[in-house]
Amino acid sequence: MRSYGPGNPLVFSHIPKSAGTSLGAALEQVLQPTVSVAGGIDTALFGGYDDLENISPIFRAGIYLTPEDMPADAELVTAHVAPGTTTARYPGADHISVLRVPQVRFLSQWLHSRSLSDFTLRRWGPSGDAFRAGRLPIRDYLQHAKVAPSIDNTITRFLAWPHPALSRMEFIRESDDDALYDVALERLGSFAHVNLVENPRFLADISAWLGADLPQVQLNERTSVLPKYRTDLTAELDPETRALLDHRHRIDARLWKHVAEQVLPDTDPHVVLAKAFDKAVKRYNEVLHAPYDASLLRRAVYAAWDLKAKVAR
Predict the structure, then answer these.
(1) d(CA 76, CA 34)
(2) Is residue 295 part of a domain?
(3) What does the radius of gyration of the chain's CA atoms come to, in whole angstroms?
(4) Does the structure show a pLDDT above 90 at 39?
(5) Is 69 inside a domain boundary?
(6) What pLDDT, on a 0 to 100 scale, did the predictor assign at position 304?
(7) Closest CA to 130 of 144, 111, 143
(8) Interacting residues of 71 by C-beta distance below 8 A, sequence separation 6+
(9) What CA–CA distances, in Å, run from 76 to 10, 32, 166, 237?
């Protein structure tokens, strides 16, 4: 197995909502690092909700504004930190990443946002509105420019940041598509290993590359949504909304298909993408209609917090 030590860690570039929490936990179990960065974000995907002064200190500590904010002696990094930051901080590190069908990644993020109560978001202060935006209908959410980095070619933005064509509160211009695609593809080409969530063997492939068997870990899987934020996902995805969804992920889809051609050479990427999307819509619809699984105590806390906020308003 490769040896990773202080200043020369293994960096898992964890693209949000790409099944990375489970992989990060598996890497932690196997590598057992003395110092790790197992959570946190940098500013690569910051949108218009960036009121850092009013974020709880416990969350603020995990926001890395510069590469130097990250511990120099890390042995494993599995955070939502773009390679533009980690390559500057750890120039000798091996980077790996896992991509997910972009439209499915988006739906997972939208569903996650709808599962978060205002009580849960209280520690984010005004920046919690970035999550509350997910309570909008999908079509409106896809047009909400203040969260552009999270809904508009997020994979490309994560990989290409800090490219000058990227804006926190503007959608990517089509005239910049090719330039951003080339930068993101070059970044992936520099990684030690890249795979896909949709590859049935992705964990085995990463284990083979690492030289150690990674355990199967299932974490951060959404099973229900707050009742007041449930909706019919199939109805939400009418033809106009679906077209906008594909448009917002047009560069990401090119990147995903490129990787699919490498790791799934005997399959048609278009077929794999379509099947993954249909499967996700079915599963997420089931989650949206599943009985709410929060405890009575938690429900009471959420209700009390909502009432307090309503009275304050």
Answers:
(1) 9
(2) yes
(3) 19
(4) no
(5) yes
(6) 74
(7) 144
(8) 35, 37
(9) 5, 9, 28, 39
Provide mean pLDDT across the span 59-69: 95
User: In what helix (H) or strand (E) does residue 157 lie, and over which residues does it extend?
Assistant: helix 154-160
CB atoms within 10 A of CB 227: 10
Judge whether 4 lies within some domain: no
The beta-strand segments (E) located in the chain are: 10-12, 36-37, 41-42, 63-64, 76-77, 94-99, 193-196
Query: Residue 40 belongs to what domain range?
Result: 10-308
A 10 A CB-CB count for 28 gives: 16
List, edge to edge, every strand of the sheet that includes 76-77.
36-37, 76-77, 10-12, 94-99, 193-196
Q: Which neighbouring-strand residues pair with 42?
A: 64
In sequence order, what are the beta bridge partners of 120? none
User: Domain total for the chain?
Assistant: 1
* Partners of residue 96 on adjacent β-strands: 12, 193
| Peptide bond before residue 149 is cis, with ω within 30 degrees of 0 | no
Position 312 confidence tier, pLDDT thresholds 50, 70, 90: low
Residue tagged 């989650």 (tokens): 287
CATH number for 182? 3.40.50
Say if residue 310's pLDDT is above 80.
Answer: no
Q: What are the distances in angstroms from CA 313 to CA 78, 206, 308?
A: 39, 51, 9
Q: Which residue has the tokens 């068997």?
A: 213
Alpha-carbon distance of 81 to 136, in angstroms, equals 27
* Integer angstrom CA distances of residue 161 from 72, 87, 168: 21, 12, 11
Backbone angles phi, psi at 103, to 5 degrees: -65, -35
- N residues, the chain: 313
One-letter amino acid at 236 equals E
For residue 2, tell me if it sits in a domain: no
How is residue 121 written in tokens?
């978001």
Indicate the SS3 state at residue 5: strand
pTM above 0.90, yes or no: yes
Confidence of residue 309 (pLDDT cuts 50, 70, 90): low
CB 96 within 8 A of CB 193: yes
Q: How many CB atoms lie within 10 A of CB 62?
A: 17
